[in-house]
Design a protein that fits this description.
This protein is an alpha+beta fold. Helices cover about 25% and strands about 30% of the residues.
């Protein structure tokens, strides 16, 4: 299953989907679920919702369903200003960092369907010309998209169909190494989405004993992805999002991370306790950590007023919101923990 998940992630990462511009990735997930024999639906917000098992319960009114979520929206940019010299000033979509995207290749999507290539650079980016290159501030005010087109004025750019509000997508630069590492932008959270597709594939052969739903959300990066579309028969929400790797945390790229608390507060103690116990019992390599600067779709669901038990897990990811890295062992451990919880 790890090979399927890895291959699926590589394909999904190639589908540009910054928050608010997610139709391509949502269609990919929808088609993949359809090919497995499921009946997914698109939510009004543009996400994908799919029931993958329906428990045959004696007490039909008992709401004990499990909702598994992952988000397919990523970071990106939007044209904020077409400059007089034919360059583009951007505004970020989600938590895009200008410092972390310097010299990255990108695509500008026009409203009429064209895609124009470019590179996101510091203004006056030639070291042999700019003596302040190394000390210059990197911000959306000091950086610009240099288009790979013969343009030198704002009018030239507008003739290409580029205007304020056009979406700018960055190259994920996905690589899978022989040692099992996966390096790419947007592991957050397309790797988790691929893991949930792997779980859906498994569930066709081994049906979970309870009702299980999948929700692939599309506005997580701006805080409201999980606010809606929670089915009525759900009592637990297990959010699968990237696990944090960094100083002060115990998680590595080979672990499944179990978040016990993030910036919104603690996750449901009983549900988290069960996840930790299952990991120990089944020899799943895990880490329990506090994420200091993090919010999830599970948080969003509770903030929207849903009465749910909630928890957060995910494969360890280093350099979050940058050029990220995980490992296939982390995929396997995350997949095993989801199965352990859903099939218990």
């Amino acid at each position: 299953m790890v090979s399927y998940i890895t291959d699926t992630f590589v394909k999904l990462a190639a589908e540009d989907s910054p928050t608010g511009f997610t139709d391509r990735a949502a269609r990919f997930v929808y088609d993949e679920l359809k090919s497995m024999g499921y009946t997914p639906t698109f939510t009004n917000k543009g996400g994908v919702l799919c029931r993958i098992s329906n428990a045959d319960r004696a007490d039909a009114d008992r709401a004990d369903g499990l909702l598994l979520t992952a988000h397919i929206d990523t970071l990106g940019g939007m044209v904020a200003c077409v400059k007089e010299n034919g360059r583009l000033m951007l505004t970020g979509l989600g938590g895009l960092s200008p410092q972390n995207t310097e010299a990255e290749n990108c695509l500008v999507y026009t409203r009429d369907g064209r895609r124009i290539e470019g590179t996101f650079q510091l203004v006056n980016a030639s070291v042999h010309v700019n003596k302040d290159y190394s000390t210059a501030e990197r911000s959306f005010n000091t950086m610009e998209v240099v288009l790979d087109a013969d343009v030198s004025t704002a009018e030239d750019v507008k003739k290409l169909g580029i205007e304020n509000g056009c979406v700018v997508c960055f190259d994920p630069r996905t690589r899978v190494t022989e040692s099992g590492y996966i390096k790419s932008r947007f592991l957050d959270d397309k790797l988790s989405a691929a893991i949930l597709l792997g779980f859906a594939k498994q569930a066709k052969e081994k049906v979970p004993p309870r009702t299980v739903w999948l929700h692939f959300t599309v506005f997580e990066e701006v805080g409201h992805g999980g606010c809606a579309s929670v089915p009525d028969d759900v009592s637990e929400l297990l959010c699968v999002d990237m696990g944090c790797v960094g100083e002060g945390l115990s998680c590595t790229e080979r672990d499944v991370s179990i978040c016990v608390k993030d910036s919104h507060g603690p996750y449901h103690y009983g549900m988290t306790d069960t996840l930790i116990r299952l990991a120990k019992e089944q020899g799943i390599r895990y880490a329990a950590d506090v994420y200091p600067f993090y919010g999830s779709d599970a948080d969003a669901a509770l903030c929207a007023g849903h009465d749910l038990r909630h928890a957060l897990i995910g494969a360890g990811v280093y350099a979050s919101h940058g050029y990220e890295r995980s490992h296939q062992e982390g995929i396997g451990n995350t997949f095993r923990l989801i199965c352990a919880y859903a099939y218990r």
